[in-house]
Amino acid sequence: MLIKHKLLILLTLLMFLPNNCIVEYTPLTHEEAELLNVEGLITDQPGVNIIKLSKSISIWNKQVAKPLKQCIVTISDDLGQIYNLIETNNGNYITNPTTFQGVAGRKYTLHIKTTSDPVNYSYSSFPVEMKPVPPIDNIYYEKKTYHDQLPAVEGCQVYLDTQDPSNNCKFFRWEYSETWEIRLPYNVKNRVCWVSNNSNDIFIKNTSVLGEARIIRYPVISISNPIDKLSIKYSILVSQFSLNEDEYLYWERLKNSLEQVGGLYDQVPASIPNNIFCVEDPNRNVLGYFSVSAKTSRRLFIKDSFAGYDHQYENCITDTITGNVIIDTLKGINSFIWMIVDSSDKVPPRRYLTRKRDCGDCMARGTNIKPDFWSDDKK
Predict the structure, then answer these.
(1) Residue 228 and residue 180 in contact, taking contact as beta carbons nearer than 8 Å
(2) In terms of residue numbers, what domain contains 108?
(3) Looking at residues 265-269, what average pLDDT do you find?
């Protein structure tokens, strides 16, 4: 999935007037009110490919972009075949997995026709070749001590190695999806869960300036919170994509733009060249990119011991009930109170309560359904 573009840049000028009022200043710009925003990626993997369409809004508008519906979206290849995409919801258009799967070496073109606006336009991408991608050679981690926390904790840095001996793939991009197991320290109903998170940064590498397409110790993620992510078991699935030079330059410029502070004169995403144009009006700006990439993935499991101060649940108990009090209404979960420790068989009887849902129900953070790829071995 393509990274969400930061299309909203807010600028507020504080002016001290005689009556100490604060007014908001909006500079005049020649920006178009609404632009087509395209988030699209097709790969050589089986399954559904998604093209997401939306309308951008003025960078001074505090609302978010809205989905663009009722479009006619197709993909054509260099053999003359045309594939119709199906509209689902929220501006998503998907390929039919039974009739379409990308092939490395083939060129693909995206076509979009709007039908719901007072003035409708046709858009097209330039033909994009799907470059082959090599497999990821290795994913591994090294322990690392983080001194920015007191006391210092031990986490890890995840790296990957990859290479393309044929030197066909010189530009790389990566995404990851991480999953970790959590276990509450109390014997509650939903005690074991799995939390997942997807990467939200841009990871790219250019090997064209090197003698060979070889990447060693590329840093994927730094995990500095071992009690949360690494205390039980952790998994990361890294996906590697092939890029052509034009798309690499797009991601590089977008990365540089998003890493800037965001001042008035900084580069904004609308100024980043892409590969989509308006057929009727080539001068009409379009946001986003139609990505065509071969894809390969590799998973790493981490089940190790990491030193750290376990303070995640130290403030869970917020109340205690002592004595033979009937509290059947507190068993389980309601909107306000969770019973996390039932010591009614002790003398004197006690029940320990919490008002923090994540202390009494792990589903506040994740799901209690074990992922298909999870296993109970030590890998």
Answers:
(1) yes
(2) 36-131+245-293
(3) 50
